[in-house]
Design brief:
With 233 residues, this protein is an alpha+beta fold. The protein has helices spanning 22-28, 31-47, 74-97, 104-108, 137-144, 160-163; strands spanning 10-20, 54-58, 63-68, 113-128, 131-135, 155-159, 178-184, 187-195. It is elongated, with a radius of gyration of 21 Å.
Length: 233
């Protein structure tokens, strides 16, 4: 039998990075490579977690993170957003500059974009074997916010439920905060958001990988051959 559901309601940060362009990318490119690329990107987002976020679910093109307790400060929040965004696009740059495969998935991976939605509210948990499921209206709220009227492709959205926990309505130096409001089946939700496009200038140039043998002092052998064929073959 599964463990009983706990009815304890706790305040928590809900944090959802979402890969935009996922549906078209998977449907119009080679499924094996597109799946591999999306898996790598989701792993990069998980590895970039600096503020103690827990993974609740991986939902195809998005990750539902949560963290119980006090909300992050504005500085912590925007630093986390920045780190995930730079990690995401740093990996995509490898497909743009160093790929060997010329398939549609590898050639178009650089067109994928990232948006992040965050909310602070009250949630409950249930435990089903080793899985943890989050429940509550605030969980519904953060999912609804993934669909909105923001015209930009890349942004970090944060509800007033989170902003109200910050002593001052601060925004990072790399972005200008804008305000929005949306009517959903859960009611009207007011939020702020910042465009993430300025962070692209922080994405480093891909470094050349060093595949030399550690400790080797002299070349062991070399081989060179010219293949007279188009790259696509």
């Amino acid at each position: 039998m599964s463990a009983p559901t706990t009815n304890v309601t706790k305040p928590a940060l809900l944090f959802v990075p979402d890969i935009s362009g996922f549906t078209q990318f998977v449907q119009t490119t080679e499924i094996a490579h597109s799946r591999h690329i999306i898996e790598e990107l989701l792993e990069k987002l998980i590895e970039a977690n600096d503020i103690g976020l827990q993974v609740s679910e991986v939902e195809g093109d998005a990750i539902l993170f949560y963290r119980f307790g006090h909300p992050p400060t504005a500085e912590e929040f925007f630093q986390q957003v920045q780190k995930m965004f730079v990690a995401f696009h740093s990996h995509l740059r490898l497909y743009e500059t160093q790929r060997i495969c010329q398939c549609g998935a590898c050639a178009s991976a650089h067109t994928l974009t990232l948006k992040i939605v965050a909310h602070y509210g009250n949630i409950t948990q249930s435990h089903i074997k080793e899985h943890v499921k989050l429940f509550g209206q605030d969980v519904i709220t953060v999912h609804r916010l993934l669909k909105n009227d923001i015209s930009r492709h890349e942004y970090a959205l944060f509800t007033h439920g989170l902003v109200n926990e910050w002593p001052q309505a601060t925004t990072p130096t790399w972005a200008q905060r804008e305000e929005g409001s949306q009517e959903y089946d859960v009611g009207r939700i007011n939020y702020g958001y910042v465009p993430l496009a300025p962070l692209r200038q922080l994405v480093p140039e891909p470094r050349v990988e060093d595949f030399s043998i550690p400790g080797a002092k002299v070349p062991l052998f070399s081989c060179e051959h010219e293949v007279r064929a188009p790259m696509s073959r």
